[in-house]
Amino acid sequence: MRIVVALGGNALLRRGQPMTADNQRENIRTATAQIARVAPGNELVVAHGNGPQVGLLSLQAAAYTDVAPYPLDVLGAETEGMIGYMIEQELGNLLPKDVPFATLLTQVEVDPKDPAFKNPTKPIGPVYSEADAKRLAAEKGWDIAPDGDKFRRVVPSPKPKHIFEIRPIKWLLEKGTVVICAGGGGIPTMYGEDGNLKGIEAVIDKDLASSLLAQQLNSDVLVIATDVNAAFINWGKPDQKGIAHAHPDELEKLGFAAGSMGPKVEAACEFARKTGKTAVIGALADIEAIVQGKAGTRVSTEKPGITYF
What we know:
The chain has helices spanning 21-35, 51-63, 72-92, 130-140, 166-174, 206-216, 248-251, 262-275, 287-291; strands at residues 2-7, 43-48, 101-103, 107-109, 122-128, 143-147, 150-155, 162-163, 178-180, 187-191, 197-199, 221-226, 232-233, 241-246, 278-283, 297-299, 306-308. It is of the alpha/beta class. Strands 1, 2, 3, 9, 12, 13, 14, 15, 16 and 17 form a ten-stranded mixed β-sheet that branches. Strands 8-4-10-11 form a four-stranded mixed β-sheet. A three-stranded antiparallel β-sheet has the order 5-7-6. Strand 10 and strand 11 form a beta hairpin. Helix 1 (21-35) crosses helix 3 (72-92). The longest helix is centred in the first third of the chain and has 21 residues, at 72-92. The protein starts with a strand and ends with a strand.
């Protein structure tokens, strides 16, 4: 099978953990132990989040004022290389030595007319007091929004339109390479009025980019690995129920929160609807069972309705 595994941010840095290289490597080691179980006999692509890593680079840039901070597209490229290096090394330590790996810097095109550019919603970087946030917004032209009792910069999160490196990804897969790509949703790019490609200050949702990647690779299954074992209704309440299988038309009606499960559900539904194949939302620890059809919330057009655990 051709499998795309999208690792959530929890696979790289757990909530509340110090953002150290050692912590990141230990979490990646845990993730790759699960991925290694499904690698033999399959074509494997790994995508991943990069939110904490970009946030850390933003904090470091804020502490060094001699130069202007690097733009988000450059920070995205930096984190793709850093995280890809660790995934390659840790997964390579678990698989036969002759298995080839490649981490690709992945440029993802977005539409300059995407409505997200008129409504920035994606928080990035450090938190600020209201006064500091307003000052920085005036100085740098940032959009800001409340984040608890603080404020953060917010940027657009446009939909992914095209993955520029899709052909070399296919070529690598055909040669038996494990490919790490589309990290953090890919490097956001668009064509300017002069016809030249350029990076932009935006963040592409990792799950939506992984869905597009899986579609364009004609993958057999999309695995969206997160920190819960399924999508739930009434999450956190006494009557919560885990979803075992759902048709995308029915699943979308349940209205999952935009800041948590919503993008994962949207990505899974899009993949299932456009390919006729299965996307699964489930726990990182269950990846092997997910691929075997024994765990997670399976989203497909195979049958109508919703069934629960």
